[in-house]
Design goal:
The protein has about 425 residues and is of the alpha/beta class. The protein folds into three domains: about 210 residues, FAD/NAD(P)-binding domain (3-Layer(bba) Sandwich), CATH 3.50.50.60; about 90 residues; about 80 residues, no CATH class. It contains 14 helices and 19 strands. The strands form four sheets. A seven-stranded mixed sheet has the order 6-5-14-15-16-13-17. It has a six-stranded mixed sheet with strand order 8-2-1-12-19-18, with helices on one face. Strand 15 and strand 16 form a beta hairpin. Helix 1 runs parallel beside helix 3 and helix 8 packs antiparallel against helix 12. The protein starts with a strand and ends with a helix. It binds flavin-adenine dinucleotide.
Amino acid sequence: MKKILVGGAGHGGLSAAIVLAKKGYDVTVVESKNPADMGYDWHDTMPGDTFDYVGIDYPEEYEPSNRMAYVAPDGKTKVIMPDAMRIDVDRKILINHLIKEAEKAGVKLVFGQKVVSPTVASAWVTGFTATDGEKTYEYCGDLVIDACGMNSPLRRNLPSHFGIDNEFDKQHIFDVYRIYFENLTGELTDPQYIVTFFNLGKPGIDWMNTNKDFVDIIVGKFEFSGELTQEEIDATIAKYKEQFPYIGEKVRGGTGVERIPIRRMLPLIVANGYAAVGDSAGMTVPLTGSGIALSMKAGKILADTVIDAGDKDLAVSRLWGYQYKYFTDFGKDYVLLDLFKNLFTYIDTDDINYIMEKEILTADKMAIADGFPLKIELSYLLHVASVALPLAPMVPALLKCFKLLPLMPVAMKSIPEKYDAQKVHEWTKLYNAL
Ligand SMILES: Cc1cc2nc3c(=O)[nH]c(=O)nc-3n(C[C@H](O)[C@H](O)[C@H](O)COP(=O)(O)OP(=O)(O)OC[C@H]3O[C@@H](n4cnc5c(N)ncnc54)[C@H](O)[C@@H]3O)c2cc1C
């Protein structure tokens, strides 16, 4: 049976490891943290079908997510989203559940070792080096699954001839700060989950999720406009506290500033003996950075591709099946949202207020972030045309972001089903050009 190495015990890496170990593969996961430090002191929202998709049990505790609304920066327009079958899961419960499932399936879990770099023998990745700070460990395998997240040293240290992007640029990075306060009175907002664009003029998105006992606040800023500052965090929290006096002083959890990817899938995520999943492969919802479900689903697709390869080696030509299936089933749905996200580089608070007030940004259009299909009806286009005049100054920005939009359907459909180096190269060029 093949030997599979996984760098990083996150959602994507563990999902792939569980599926493969259940089929008898020899799977080793190397994780830099110690078990007690796994996960975070917060809960996450994710589509409810994820566990069925991967074929693993649901965690013991989870609950349906609160109804969500997008709110304009001036607070006047509220777009209430359709129910998207999302669930909320405590991050520590989720990751510990995946770890238990992995142990049950026979995965070997190594904690407290940091993966440092891939081992490369000419055109193949053959393993990786890890360290516990004192000793260095060499791991060899038939496949390295890179699940180390956005700053993965595996992806970053791949030689350029593999053709895989080593770095994410600032356009695709989001800074987020999260804090939980007690809810003094148990009062709730309507709906309970409020998402605000360009709150206080900051190019970014803030979330406030109100529950009976606590209020969960996330302050987010697109890094293209600079890093999130303490002043911006303090101002946002002060605004929420002024608006909702039941937000108490007592802090119940949270984090410092974290950097997360907000991008469509990287153009190439596989090489001979190597495949990236999850954040390491840029598999997030471009506007919000949500990546738990996408990384888990990608882990399942990757594992199935490895199983389908049987005794044959895991050359790029076979692993391409994973990239093809992930892209056609999920990745392509987020390309438009990624282009839309770029628009945020050029517009300001007034533009967003107008776009929301005039119903250019509507619930059914925003629902693509939850995986709903995008529909552009003639009536919608006519409506947009009738209110678009004041947006004329935005035309250069729209042209910059969407100039190659007509090529998008071509890029969606022309991804080669079977690996052919030349055809794949041409497709990645087209995909990058969008
Ligand atoms: C504040 C915040 C809130 C979020 N909220 C949501 C949400 O509500 N819903 C949602 O879907 N997503 C959310 N996300 C995004 C989500 O966390 C990621 O998209 C998701 O975890 C990606 O899974 P992954 O398996 O790719 O990576 P991760 O889950 O990040 O796992 C990577 C693992 O690799 C380990 N690692 C890193 N480097 C090394 C190394 N060198 N050697 C060994 N191990 C290493 C890490 O310790 C980690 O365990 C949020 C992120 C943040 C920061």
